[in-house]
Predict the structure.
Amino acid sequence: MQHILALDLKDDPALIAQYEAHHRAVWPEVVAHLREQGVTGMTIHRLGTRMVMVMTTDDAVFDADRYARESAAHPVIQRWEALMWTFQSPTPWTPAGQKWAAMTKIFELPES
């Protein structure tokens, strides 16, 4: 399954450059955790300060509630998330207490 999520970055070119540098060298524990949770693919795209994440999951393994619980209990993931939050900010439409917000699909090209 594909999950499309949005998040903003703080409007500071130096912070954005640091954020991108961190994503060129994501901690191995973060990658391992994502894979253990059933995430099979992930890309993050940026335009200005807006980011869009495309996350593909194996639904036989991935469970959003379990992912949240196990991420909250994992000390390395919590350090990564705290570091990332120094660069990130919620979109104006993100519910309180969330970071990445799910986007609503409004169009899909039909098969011919």
In short: The two ends are 21 Å apart (CA to CA). The mean pLDDT is 97.
